[in-house]
Each structure stands twice: as structure tokens, then as C-alpha cells.
Amino acid sequence: MPAPRPLVLIPSYNTGPLVLRTVRQARAAWSPVWVVVDGSTDGSGALLENLARGDPGLRVIRLPANRGKGAAVLEGLRAALAEGFTHALVMDADGQHPADCIPAMLAASRAAPAAMILGDPRFGPEAPLVRLHGRRISNWWARVETLGGGIGDVLFGFRVYPIAPLVGIMRQSRWMRHFDFDPEAAVRLSWLGVPAINRPVPCRYLRPEEGGVSHFHYLRDNLRLTWMHARLVLGMLRRAPRLLRRRRLRRRAAPPAAATPR
To answer: What is the biggest distance separating any 2 CA atoms in the chain, rounded to whole angstroms?
Structure first.
């Protein structure tokens, strides 16, 4: 693989002034940082462009209409690939993801450039129980869909992706353009043979009075996730022989467990 050249990529939709704090924290940890403003109507695009005028390490890409998280990420990935970047740390704009973990995530990616580095969230007591329950269900399905591919958390969006294989997958699929982006990207990269490395990362749900913003719609997005898992299970069945063979090879290559001293 070419020498890693990573950037931080932040998709943003109507996150208000909170996105400025997120971007400033990300820029304190890394350069460059790119923000894809996904058709926001709250004025945050203009605020970000004003911030970028005085910061050569910050780039803002504005989409004319809201297309969904996955579509915004793909827009940024295509532009990054065209400019020679090899890896992208994708993080949310809403303050849930810790910018101070960016250097460690990218260091892990540098040590294993063929892998995807997945944040494994550590939630505080403020996390909604209904969201945690839904997450456990999606994680269980991801283990089924990859036949134990090693994905720790399929929904957490704080990740480092190798750009070229992810763009290739997304170009071949009409899906992965909305809230289904994070889980389907991890599963399809696992199918492709991209190994998953999980790193524990703290995650905080901000309350509305703290500026917290959520665009998750329980009915619409849960239906979208249900349809996504149905598609991925069918896709797994077609790939099962290859996935099982890969799992056997992985187990044979694993170092033997150390004997327990007596």
C-alpha cells in the first residue's frame, strides 16, 4: 500500500454552532480536517466557511441539498481520493465523538494500514437505554452477517477507513447513503477482507440544553436498519463459503494461546 496519508472527515447537517466546537477540537488534534456540509439550513455552513478562511488546515465542502450522512461522506471521500489521501477518520459533528482520540486512532491506522480502525464506544449514564438496546441488536446481526468478522460496534461512527476500498464498495451500491452508512460500510468492508481493529473510545450523549442535536428518527431509521440487515443477511448467505474459509485461515494463523502456568 502507499504510505498512509490521512485526513479527518466530518459530515454535518444542521448541527448549529456545536459544529464549530467540534471542528476546532478536531483541528487542535489533526490537520487537515474537511467538513462536508450536507445541505444545512441553519447557517452553520457560512460559519464554517468563515472559520476556514483563516485556517489552511480546514476545508469546507457544501452540498446544495441534504442527501444523508453516507452520501455526504462519499462526497468527501471521492474528493480526498482524487487528492491522494489514503485514509479518512470519519467523526460526527454533534460532539459525541472525542477529538482527543484522533491521534491514537490514526496511529493505529498507520500501524495497520490495510485495516479499518473501529471505535468501540464506552457510554456514560446519560445514554438513552432504548438506543443502547437497539445497538446490541444491530451488533448481534453484524456478527451473523460477517460470520464473526470481528466488528465490535457496528453503529459507532468514529472510525478510520481505508478510502479506496470503501469508495469502490459505495460506487457499486445504491445503498449506504443515509443512517445505514456506518453498519453497512463495516460489514461490506469485512466481506471484502478488510480486517477490523477495535479501540475503546468514550462516547457522550449531549442533552438538548447542552446543544445536543439528533436527527435519528426512531420509526424511519429503524425500518431502514431492518431492511439493511435483511439485505446483508442475504448477502452473507451468498458469501458464506468464502467467509467460513477465511475464518478458518484466520484461526490457523493466530498464535497459539499461552499455556496456563501450574
So the answer is: 67
Average pLDDT over residues 51-71: 96
Three-state SS for the chain is CCCCCEEEEEEECCCCCHHHHHHHHHHHHCCCEEEEEECCCCCHHHHHHHHHHCCCCEEEEEECCCCCHHHHHHHHHHHHHHCCCCEEEECCCCCCCCHHHHHHHHHHHHHCCCCEEEEEEEECCCCCHHHHHHHHHHHHHHHHHHCCCCCCCCCCCCEEEEHHHHHHHHHCCCCCCCCCHHHHHHHHHHHHCCCEEEEEEEECCCCHHHCCCCCCCHHHHHHHHHHHHHHHHHHHHHHHHHHHHHHHHHHHHCCCCCCCCC
Nearest Cα to 5, choosing from 167, 166, 164? 164
CB 51 within 8 A of CB 78: no
Alpha-carbon distance values, 101 to 56, 91, 96 (Å): 22, 11, 12
- What is the model's pLDDT at position 212? 54
pLDDT digits (tens, 9 = 90+) for 5-29: 999 999 999 988 889 999 999 999 9
